[in-house]
Amino acid sequence: MKRKFLFVCNFKMNTVKKAEYKKALQKDVYNNLVLCPNFCDLKEYSSFKKSNSVMLGAQNVSEYANGAHTGEVSASMLKNAGADFCIVGHSERKQNNYETLSQINLKIKMLIDNNITPIVCTGESVARDEEYAVRFVLSELNEMLKDVDLNKVIVAYEPIWAIGSGKVASVKHIKSVITTVKQYTGISFVLYGGSFNQSNYQDITDIDCVDGALIGGASLKPDVIVQMIQKTDIK
Ligand code: PGA
Predict the structure, then answer these.
(1) pTM to 2 decimals?
(2) Which of 8, 56, 150, 183 is paired with 86 by a 20 to 30 Å CA distance?
């Protein structure tokens, strides 16, 4: 039986020409691919929804509905631009933009109210054992997901030390953290993120409890993404 493994591509603040994805996707249908370009490119990329069944994601959202919040983008604006998903609480935003867990909680609720699925990021900053990672993740999730319907969110477990470092977490680590987090919280859909690429994807897609990947660097290479998807959707 085929297992659906979700590939979520976070371009971060990089431009990937739409034509490059168009060439890689061709006319095929992808029901397990989410592309998350920058805000300005969302509308342009939304045409892939029709042509290839690709889903669309944003990388951030305001915790407010509207009003005097210069530079912010609301959940309803994202919905109008075609977003089905939105990444929230990415470690880069927590570190560089000082996003707090309670702010992230408001963003998650705003997204759910606008029928956008939040992809909630969490992960420990230092490489330690699984017990430490689980404790860290559970305490972050506890605050970020306060009073949130857990059936309406996706969690992305991203050990911060693995993000953009080329150091992927071990299969044992990923398996143990994600299994325990699912058991304790009841959350059913969890992605792995952190240096996921063509040299390690087979090991990670083979882990039963991992429902997909949040991909940064490798998502800038559309051919690589398409190759990984074509070789994966066969479990
Ligand atoms: P990476 O980024 O794949 O480049 O490590 C992952 C992420 O930041 O979500």
Answers:
(1) 0.96
(2) 183
Cα dihedral 55, 56, 59, 63 sign: negative
Handedness of CA 198, 199, 204, 205 (dihedral sign): positive
- Is a pLDDT exceeding 60 seen at residue 234? no
Q: Whose CA is nearest to atom 7 of ligand 1?
A: 216
Please say if 124 is a catalytic residue: no
Atom of ligand 1 nearest to the CA of 196: 3
Across-strand partners of 213?
7, 192
If pLDDT is split at 50, 70 and 90, which confidence band does 206 have? very high
Residues 6+ apart with CB under 8 A from 223: 24
How much is the average pLDDT of 153-169?
A: 95
- What pLDDT does residue 4 have? 85
The residue type at 77: M
Q: Would the CB of 163 count as within 6 Å of ligand 1? A: yes
- The reported pLDDT for the residue numbered 233 is 61
Does ligand 1 have an atom closer than 6 angstroms to the CB of 30?
Answer: no
CB 84 within 8 A of CB 97: no
Residues forming beta bridges with residue 192, ordered by sequence position: 157, 213
Quickly tell me which residue has 């979700």 as its tokens: 6
Strands (E), 37-171: 55-58, 85-88, 117-122, 154-157
Q: What is the separation, in whole angstroms, between the first and last Cα of the chain?
A: 6
Give pLDDT, residue 28: 96
Question: What is d(CA 44, CA 20) in angstroms, rounded to the nearest whole number?
Answer: 13
Query: What is the model's pLDDT at position 2?
Result: 47
